[in-house]
Amino acid sequence: MREDFQEAVLAVAALIPPGRVLAYGDIAELLGAGGPRQVGTVMARSGGSVPWWRVIRSSGRPPACHEHRAWAHYLQEGTPLKGRVEPDGSGYRVRIGDARWQPEDSDWTVLDTLRSQLGDAAAPANPGMSPGHGEVEV
Asked: Which InterPro entries match (predicted)?
């Protein structure tokens, strides 16, 4: 997996404020790269360096195998929840409709920069070629 994509995913996760969440697919959409599985892979491998509990499944379920630890964070941050935690960590979900983070203007500046950097890294190796000469303008 590309290192710049990993860094961008972690940067977005770090932007999410307390009490708010994004789904894996939300992060991919904000970056214009990857998909929910790729974001999930980054979070599973490197998410410990950011508030990982704020990146969840689109169903509102917390990160797999970390339900108990996430529950404590959600309670502390006042994240909107439904249900109660069961002994196995199941039984609750984040009310994602109420908790989904909406970036503010200053956040969009950061997100635009991250998206641009990812786009630059994916740019063709022949930057001198103009549209209409084998390249498509994006």
From this structure: ATL_DNA_repair (IPR052520), MethylDNA_cys_MeTrfase_DNA-bd (IPR014048), MethylDNA_cys_MeTrfase_DNAb (IPR036217), WH-like_DNA-bd_sf (IPR036388)
